[in-house]
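A note from the maintainers: we've had questions about how concatenated examples are separated. There is no special marker in the raw files; a new sequence line simply starts the next protein. For clarity in this README we add a label.
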Amino acid sequence: MDIQTYIIECKKRWRWFAYTTAAFLLAIIFFLFTTAPQYERSATVLVKDENGGSGLLSSMSAGMGMLAGMAGINISSNVDNEMAIMSAPSMMMEVVNRLGLDTRYEVYDGLMKHELWEETLPVKLTFPKLTDKDGAYMKMDLKSDGTFTLRKMRKNKDKMDGEIEGKVNTVCQTPIGPISVIATKHFKQVMDKEGDMTIRITKEKKYDQTEKCMKKMDISLADDQTSIIYIGYQDQIAERAELIINTLISIYQEAWMKDKKNAASISTQFINERIKDIEQELSGLDKDIAKFKGNNLMPDYEEAAKMYMANAALTYEQQVKVNNQLYIMEQMRDQVKRMEGQNQILPANLLPDNENVALQISEYNKLQLQRNQMADNSSENNPLVKDLDAQLASMRKTIVNTLDHGVAQLKASQKAVNREDQKLKQQISAAPSAVTQVLPAERQHKIIEALYIYLLEKREENSLTQIYNSQNLRIVSPPMGKLKPVFPKKGTVLIIALLLGLILPSLSIYLKLNIKQILAEK
């Protein structure tokens, strides 16, 4: 078949092109007249680096990567973790609850169905007896004087007969249960403009509405080289899309602050318990020293022991450091063992010289919070919850093993320091007997006092961390977008209709001519 024959055949069947193009154009025009436009709004937020803070466990992260890899623990980046939390269904469900997105109000404008929202919404309905798993539908004939009629009611798949009349700002009894009808602040303005109107009201199942909203939400990393998160949302109402994004960010920040406060509260409680024990020990030493000096009328012996103390200065500093670290690490290990199976986060930021344990506990706390949140949203028997329990048990074992190893190392260091201390004590024993009797008590007093001051500083540091770590997100760009809808694009769909109207007849003619030619050759 040559091209000239093909063109002649196309001219003969020009009506095919006209009819097909007209049909597609009519279909597209009908589609445009019945499809509500969709608008897109997006925001970008910067996730701050939590490791830059000065909290109680902020300095305990060195060497964690190697041990975590040996233990089979997958440590993802901070941005990925926060992005997963922000994308969680529980976050979107809270947005649905706060904004009442599970109840939809629609009216027809010609062939197109429009949603009512804020300034265009005259009334709001609540369904106190419906559960999150129930759905409902009804039509409301609303009049300017505030009276209304509810009809064509449906609960889930069950249709309800009859019509219910009522007045706004009251509770009316219906076959699907009591319904509260409250006039919004825009009621008079809307009714003066629109007059009597028929509103189609749909109460979605909360889980279904959450899933629908999640499909419209796009949360992704803006750039592989940055910690900026892109948050986009498509909706029929641009203002509502902006409000949903802002509400999601607010809910995320509130949850983050709650987690931080819980972690800080556990750490503060742990420190307060240790301080109370040390205060009692210091009080006993103070009484012993005061009693000894009073009974022996002991003068100031510091000048007499100055030579020995100069030699003991370095050993003393080492002893203070080792005792502090050993005490805290043993207490931390005992605390971890006691908390097994309690599904609580571990106290943080107490070992400034052991960054390995710091990062292990930080990752454990994040996974524990994720597990608790998932258990609250489902149940303890959820397979995902049990899987997280297994991971947490493995992480606790790794943390305890690391603490045991650290305790063993510190005890070895303590023995070496104590041996050096014994040598100094033998030298000091040559001093007057009164000095040798009281000096160990005073040295022990100073060691414990140094630990006491250290814990007080950490408690204050923890309080400051709570104040200054008020946010972990910085809004780079607030929700915004183009004034034109992103769907449907009229120019694009019209061009597609024209192309289909031309291509389909052309293809049909081409196939018909080729079939005739093949049959003729046979």
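[label: protein 2]
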Amino acid sequence: MIEQETLTKRIMKDERTGKAVCPYCGVGCVISATVRDNMITKISADAALAPNYGMLCPKGAHLKQVFQRPDGRLAYPMLRERRGEPPRRVTWDEAIAFIANRLQDIQLAHGKDALAFYGSGQLDTEASYVFNKLFKGFLRTNNVDTNSRLCMSSAVAGYVQSFGSDGPPTCYEDIQHADVFLIIGANMAVNHPVLFQMIRKRRAMEANTRIVTVDPRRTQTAAFSDIHVPLAPGSDVAFLQIIAKRLLAIGRIERRFVRRHTENFNAYQNHLEGLDEDALLAACGIHPARIDELVEYLSKPSRLLSFYCQGTNQSTSGVDKNVALINLHLQLGEVGIRGAGPFSLTGQPNAMGGREVGYLAHQLPGYRVVTNDMHRAYVEGAWRLPPGSIDAKPGLTAVPMFEAAAKGDVRALWIACTNPAVSMPDTKVSQEGLRRADLVIVQDCYYPTETAEYADVLLPAAQWGEKIGTMTNSERLVVRSEQFLTPPGEAMPDWWIFAQVAKTIGFKQSFDFHSSEAVWDEYRMLTAGTPCDQLGMTNERLAKTSLRWPCPHPRHPGTLRRYTRRRFLTPSGKAQFHTPVYRPPEEKPDADFPLGLTTGRVASQWHTRTRTGKVPQLVKKEPEPFVEIHPDDADAYEVRDGEWVYLVSRRGRCYARARVTETIRRGLLFTPFHWGDLFHAETNANNVTTSAADPVSKQPELKFCAVRIEAA
């Protein structure tokens, strides 16, 4: 008995806990892990800890299972002598020296813009800062972009056009005070389930609260809503302008706010009054009663909180959709007050933090941009670079980056924490770019992946729980994750890998970071005085609590809501009305491709399944790709429920099991994009999607393309 008690005490002594930001969506849930013998034994959420207050989605709740499959981890640096051959294990010194030499050789032979970096909104802020500094500052190329270009860049441009700055004015607490929720282009019940639970609680506590979901599919979110508007794909601008026009006609406008705090309203009003409502309604393809119901909700003063995500962003008119929604909020004065505002949901855990650090092709840290002379000069001074070191021309964005590689203009591609061989639109282009590049570096936690098959160098990265790192969620909440696991093999934090390569190239003094905390301190100094000021977020404070920016000094409590004084970050200090014009999707169905296709996610999987595909409990929920088809279309094209079919577009085809359902509009199909070539050679939905993009944000149209169905 005494021996057993001693053994139990020793085991309990070895048990420890740690907290980290969930690696999935942009809600930014903080998860507590109980660890013994370097394995997670329990996953939970602290009921008192923001932002999720004890709630978790199925993906977060099953995170411990990810670590029970060590065979899928990339644990050691590896090199390939030739493409197509198995990689061989090498030391870190060998891998880093090889990369440093090859990058310099390629740049010397083909110029600075022969190099490109493609990253991810799942990288922590420290990693994003170091690679941004290396490429834009010291390698002198702005060919730096991330997969956030595919999900958030239209939201960024919309905020900048209307408010003068990126970043939402809202916070999660606003859910507790809203009267009307407008969810447009977002299936929150599936993709941001913890936030949707907050909305459901608000609805249960306040009977007069209303939820409106705008989506061509009757999703789980729509099923719970008071109104479902089954909008025709791409017609968001038309829909929002009908609402605004109707409200304007009945005098529903916050005139004092508009007069004192906005500009260009007269042009906006004239534009709305000149619109043909019948034509707009026809474009929307909905019953007029849906418009009447929403106008009735908004006809009296009410706090309107809008949530929107990929359905508005992934479009050739994504910026216009964002601006049209923000216009509605400005018209009603529903900005900068409790319980109201336009709330863009980020898709990844640190997509917001990456935007702050400036990791898109036109950005610099602190919401600066490369085209601004003063911004470039400031960052050059901070990095101790000669004037003119940072290029004034934006670099290649995501799609053009791989197009340039396919043409032979980009010779070296460094890819971290993402899988573009699956996730890019029209994947034959990204795969050709990977195939043709002289040097492909893939830095990841997992192996194999579809992108890793093209790699000359494979670099093992530490993942969730295995490193210290900082992330910003959708409400601007900055959270520090702890390390409570030892990485497998020789895997290292991403920031360390970037810094080692930089030092080996010859930039030792500027990249001599000894910890993630040192990287954070340098980064936060660069945000001082900017819209996303994080100077007051010291390492000591972040170790104890989370904070929302702006947070300009160490005693500042952080900022719950922005623009509460109705002072915006435009040159005049006033918010800007714009006049977007409805434009249908560029690609239109015809006799050869008569159906529309939209893509998206399922609740149990994440991106290209490199992590969730290893969890049996999640795979069981959705084990294979499927395509939703309306019964009338199924009859017309002789498709039976449960049979495998091909979806064929002007670019390629993909394979999925038919799911006949009335939850989708006639003439439209839906398929998730999670399944790549490792599952089956033809199950990648992005074989068929188009790379057409918004002209301002450069975000590709992943929500609509023309297809036909063929029997498999």
